[in-house]
């Protein structure tokens, strides 16, 4: 069947709530740190159930756009609510576990080999990536580019062309998992600390410790809000 004639998807009510919230943030001039109206007030203003509002808030949490504080309301994490389409979230949720499994298998071995094979110049490149990520975080960013540079430098230091090729084939999916992880509250600084542990093990030439540190890191990457989210029909 033609792609154009695929079954039409009816918009969920909470998706309509998401659009209204996005518009409200723009119209009210809200920015990071500002509080959204209470769920009961939103439900009353929009003429929907609190369940629909709660579903919308959860989707915003999953995307790292808001932070719901227990008993303290919901606050913007960013200056806008540029919401990713729910269908894209659902698809990424389906493929993310396999991507993370592949990352653990590949990157654990890459860290082990890097500890055994790295040159002084390659070690300096890894350290420079750490410094870059630290500066990104200090400037208020999530450290995505520094994270990419770090893992690329470890891969290069492993001197395994086949493993590097495997990493290249899933580069797009790795970028998704990186972005997903680093938008979790408190995750950038935690990832930086774990990167530092990996670097220190590689610098010491301790392959076993480097592998263990990388495994711990990738398993932390796997702990994302998206995987605990149950999409509503």
UniProtKB/TrEMBL annotation:
Organism: Lentzea sokolovensis
Key words, A-Z: DNA-binding, Transcription, Transcription regulation
Ranges where the HTH gntR-type domain occurs: 11-79
Coiled coil found in the keyword field: no
Protein name as it appears in the record: FadR/GntR family transcriptional regulator
Domain of life: Bacteria
Family matches, as PROSITE patterns: HTH_GNTR
Pfam families cross-referenced by the UniProt entry: FCD, GntR
Membrane-spanning segments: none
């Amino acid at each position: 069947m033609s792609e154009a004639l695929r079954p039409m998807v009816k918009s969920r009510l909470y998706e309509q709530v998401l659009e209204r919230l996005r518009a409200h943030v723009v119209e009210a001039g809200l920015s990071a740190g500002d509080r959204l109206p209470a769920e009961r007030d939103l439900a009353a203003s929009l003429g929907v159930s609190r369940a629909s509002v709660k579903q919308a808030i959860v989707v915003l949490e999953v995307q790292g756009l808001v932070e719901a504080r227990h008993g303290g309301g919901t606050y913007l994490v960013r200056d806008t609510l540029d919401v990713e389409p729910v269908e894209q979230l659902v698809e990424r949720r389906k493929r993310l576990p396999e991507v993370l499994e592949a990352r653990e298998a590949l990157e654990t071995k890459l860290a082990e080999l890097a500890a055994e094979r790295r040159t002084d110049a390659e070690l300096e490149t890894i350290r420079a990536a750490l410094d870059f990520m630290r500066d990104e975080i200090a400037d208020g960013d999530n450290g995505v580019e520094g994270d990419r540079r770090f893992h690329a430098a470890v891969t290069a230091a492993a001197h395994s062309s086949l493993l590097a090729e495997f990493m290249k084939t899933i580069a797009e999916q790795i970028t998704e998992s990186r972005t997903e992880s680093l938008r979790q509250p408190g995750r950038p600084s935690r990832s930086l600390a774990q990167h530092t542990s990996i670097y220190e093990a590689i610098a010491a030439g301790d392959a076993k410790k480097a592998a263990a540190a990388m495994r711990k890191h990738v398993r932390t990457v796997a702990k994302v809000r998206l995987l605990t989210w149950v999409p509503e029909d």
